[in-house]
Automatic annotation (TrEMBL):
CC per GO annotation: cytosol
Protein name as annotated: Glutamine amidotransferase
This enzyme's EC code(s): 6.3.5.2
Gene source species: Kocuria flava
Record domain Glutamine amidotransferase: where: 49-192
């Protein structure tokens, strides 16, 4: 089997490693089947898509909608590299799953509008599948309504013309979409479980997602909230469908 490629952008080693571990665990992939490239650590190496079964993008502290002058040099480089790769991925309709940051990368690449009008506080929401979502092979085994973890400063205000809406939410109506037959992006986090989200809350408590002094309250909200188990099945379905 050809491995999958994970493009990561988290600079904190513990958070980056936990994300890699949960993606492996939820997808059912072994470490040798998920090749990780950390874009925050250096330039993207040449990517030969023929070597891979598919591409996965994890979550990110980057915000696509920030003005260019507020983005770090690393973010500007990583975004340019991902745009170039997406040119080929979209042209080939190559299997792609963008979790969280995929909305900002794939969505804006395709002409959608991502900004701060659709941000969501950290917590659990109800995600509802659309009619197209209920028919989609990645989602057909999921219930029509399920819980998902969110926590974003931005979201999709206008869906890209090429995108098909697969799932909706309350504060951010665009929770998942597909481009072509094989490219997917989610606003909610299929790569997270409760303990991993609590760890991210601690790691990013100074990053403006909530007042830093509220970190323990936000963690308690996750610990006592509804169980979130369904989104991780998307990773397994993606790996099962596209492994080759």
């Amino acid at each position: 089997m050809k491995p999958f490629l994970l493009l990561a952008t988290r600079s904190e080693d513990d958070v980056a490693d936990e994300e890699y571990e949960t993606i492996c665990r939820f997808s059912g992939l072994r470490e040798e089947q998920l090749h990780r490239v950390r874009l925050e650590a250096g330039p993207m190496p040449p990517i030969d898509l023929h070597r891979y079964s598919g591409v996965i993008i994890g979550g990110s502290p980057f915000n696509s909608s920030d003005p260019p002058e507020l983005k770090s040099e690393v973010q500007r480089r990583a975004e340019a590299e991902m745009r170039d790769l997406l040119d080929e991925v979209v042209a080939r309709d190559f299997p792609f799953l963008g979790a969280c940051y995929g909305v900002g990368t794939l969505g804006t690449h395709q002409g959608g509008v991502v900004d701060r009008t659709r941000g969501e506080e950290i917590g659990v929401i109800e995600v509802s599948l659309t009619e197209e979502g209920r028919r989609d092979p990645l989602l057909r085994e999921l219930p029509e309504v399920f819980h998902g973890y969110v926590g974003h400063k931005e979201g999709t205000r206008r869906l890209a013309p090429s995108a098909v809406l697969l799932a909706t939410g309350t504060d951010c109506p665009v929770q998942m979409f597909r481009v072509g037959r094989n490219l997917y992006a989610t606003q909610f986090h299929p790569e997270l479980d409760g303990p991993a989200l609590v760890n991210r809350i601690e790691a990013y408590k100074e990053h403006g997602y909530f007042p830093a002094g509220d970190a323990e309250r936000v963690k308690d909200r996750i610990r006592t909230g509804p169980a979130v188990t369904e989104p991780r099945r998307i990773l397994a379905a993606f790996a099962d469908r596209y492994a080759r």
